[in-house]
Amino acid sequence: MSEPRYDVIAIGNAIVDIIAACDDATIEELQLNRGGMTLVDADGADTLYAAMGPATEKSGGSAANTLAGLAELGTQCAFIGQVAKDQFGEVFAHDIRAAGIDFDTPMLEGGEPTGRCLIFVTPDGERTMNTFLGAGQVLPAEALDEELIASGAILYLEGYLWDPEEPRRAMRRAIDVARKAGRKIAFTASESFVIDRHGDDFRAMIEDGVLDILFVNESELATLTGEAEFEAGLAAIAGKVPVLVATRGPDGAVAIAHGERAEVAAEPVEAVVDTTGAGDQFAAGFLSGHAKGEPLAVCLKRGAIAAAEVISHYGPRPEADMQKLMADKLA
After folding, report:
1. What pLDDT is attached to residue 28?
2. How far apart are CA 101 and CA 93, in angstroms?
3. Alpha-carbon span 203 to 219, nearest angstrom
4. In order of start, what are the domains of the chain with their CATH numbers?
5. How far apart are CA 159 and CA 194, in angstroms?
6. Are 5 and 152 in contact (CB under 8 A)?
7. H or E segment at 219?
8. pLDDT in tens, 136-174
9. Mean pLDDT estimate for the chain
10. Three-state DSSP class for 21?
11. CA nearest 234: which of 219, 244, 248?
12. In DSSP terms, which residues pair with 17 in a beta bridge?
């Protein structure tokens, strides 16, 4: 097996996040799924955009956010995702390349516009996401650079992108390529509604030993296993995935790898401003340590540090000097 060129290659939705503060009454008035993620069509996205107050627009998408965190931590990364040849597509491509991440997926000409996620943030820092996937949902298997996929030590897959049929086929193909190259497969469940729709696929991948690293939060774990009790959910999966990482928001996180268990408390923050990207950056912190062969407890600590940084400001990507922050916190 050849030495990998990249530490992590991710496949995910290429989306521009539009983030605005709002009050609780707005969530009720618009009948939004508070604290969750809801898929909307183009008309729905336009309606919600018109209802937003002053907004911040930043490139996002779950897996792309994780790569942005990894790149800040000195990890070599590449991204595969579909944007359209339009204004938002150009913004996304510029932002991800400026972050030091290789991105060469050909732009889609004609058809769906670039995806966007409209995020309403209430005073408690909770984010309510409404996502128009746009061009991201038509990522074809033909757009995959198989040599690129085979050159990454870890292939990181975003559960959100499993929902549309065409990118799901592309991700299955990417899994085959990565496994034949002897690479690891990491998967983030993304949201309970995705598990509701495709849980049989995910459970089959777990049973078949396809996944090397699985990221879930507490509610996703319950949906995936059918076990309401957290420890029972862990026990149902831990022996079937080499590395299982389960986050619990303010209650920290647990990881079980090859029979070893580690836990970490949530890092203290002065104020929770916006929880957008907390799970994405936890994965970035964890994988930055895992790629370097750090002990399990250190990988978890890295995840907690990265998550705490991102919830202290608006937006799903880090703003601090993450390498310095890690060095200070881990000293």
Report:
1. 96
2. 10
3. 16
4. 6-13+62-105+137-330 (3.40.1190.20)
5. 7
6. yes
7. helix 218-225
8. 989 999 989 999 999 999 999 999 999 889 999 999 999
9. 94
10. strand
11. 244
12. 58, 117
